[in-house]
Amino acid sequence: MAATSKAKPVREKVREHRDRLRALGLRPIQIWVPDVRSPSFQEQARRQSQAVAASAHAHDDQAFIDAVSAIDFDGGDE
């Protein structure tokens, strides 16, 4: 019969993983971001989008978005 080895607890695996990352010079952070699935977020995004679209500057705003969207930050051609 094969010898059974006891699996490491998840807590220990996580600690070891974090220790390896720290050894690479990294540190953990916690960041909170809006929940894009929430109805209140969707309502607010819709309201802001409509306000921007109805603005007297909508054409210029969109031209700016289009221009910066075309920038290749990796240095390649478009």
TrEMBL record:
Record has Transferase as a keyword: yes
Statement: the UniProt record of this protein carries the keyword Transferase: yes
Domain of life: Bacteria
Keyword list, A-Z: Transferase
Molecular function GO terms recorded: transferase activity
Protein name as annotated: Homoserine O-succinyltransferase
Organism: Steroidobacter denitrificans
Lineage: Bacteria, Pseudomonadati, Pseudomonadota, Gammaproteobacteria, Steroidobacterales
